Amino acid sequence: MKRHIEFERLHNFRDLGGYRAGDGRAVVWGRLYRSDSLGKLRDADWDRFLDLGIRTVIDLRYPWEVEAGGAVPERERFVYANCSIEHRPYDQADVDPNVDPWRFLADRFAEVAADGVAEIGQVIELIAGTDGPVVFHCASGKDRTGLIAALVLTALDVSEDQILADFALTELATARLTADWRAAYPHRVLTWPSYGRAPAEVMRLVLDDLTAAYGSARRYLIEQVGLGEPVLEQLRARLLSCGRSPHSQELHG
Fold it and tell me: What is the pLDDT of residue 243?
């Protein structure tokens, strides 16, 4: 199975299947996807997207981003939810190049985790309770999408090493995401040299911060987000294979 699904205009569309849970089961392929903005879907990309059979689209962007960049086409075809998990907007292109980039990003993740507990809970409950394949996305499929992916995988008892590796796969899309930004804003200067980056170290800091603040990422989900065992069990039942998977995870395919 291939983790990356190739599109012309989407650069960071990935299947979260294959990651191994602590009990030996694995995330089922073709059931949960993460992506950059689906507002970019056109023509052959649209047909390829429809072929995946996705029923639910969870858009993590601000409503004003959806207005500016467009939602998934024909959103009435899907269960569509706009759950803006970030509450403090900032412009990564204008970040001071002298700041520690990974600490800066981890601090922004901590803000989202603190501010967005209601929306994060809605997202995970939707993933757990909706039939058929689901995709969640933000603008670049990097930070907000990366946090939700990490939290869902945490809820499934996927190891930290796999969570870090999944987050870092966005690095394969950095050049194209940066090129898109330059094309969209030809009269602006990209100040921050770390724009579009997603090294594993960022997610390591994020998980460490959740542990320091809440005891663990899992305790954050239970005690702060308010996910009960019925939701967690529903999530496991929907996303994990019935038995031990014979297929190893494919990170770079």
Answer: 62
pLDDT (tens digit per residue) in 23-40: 999 999 999 999 999 999
**Residue 62 reports pLDDT greater than 60:** yes
- Compute the average pLDDT of residues 109-117: 98
Six-digit token string for 200: 């594993």
Res. 242 pLDDT band, cuts 50 70 90: confident
SS (H, E, C) the chain: CCCECCCCCCCCCEECCCCEECCCCEECCCCEEEECCHHHCCHHHHHHHHHCCCCEEEECCCHHHHHHHCCCCCHHHCEEEECCCCCCCCCHHHCCCCCCHHHHHHHHHHHHHHHCHHHHHHHHHHHHHCCCCEEEECCCCCCHHHHHHHHHHHHCCECHHHHHHHHHHHHHHHHHHHHHHHHHCCCCCCCCCCCCCCCHHHHHHHHHHHHHHHCCHHHHHHHHHCCCHHHHHHHHHHHECCCCCCCCCCCCC
Q: How far apart are CA 188 and CA 186, in angstroms?
A: 6
Beginning with the edge strand found earlier in the chain, give each strand of the sheet holding 79-82 in spatial order: 14-15, 32-35, 134-137, 56-59, 79-82
Position 1 scores a pLDDT of 83
- pTM attached to this predicted model: 0.95
- Return the half-sphere exposure (C-beta side, CA atoms, 13 A cut-off) of residue 90: 17
Residue boundaries of the structural domains of the chain: 14-239
Instruction: For domain 14-239, give the CATH number.
Output: 3.90.190.10
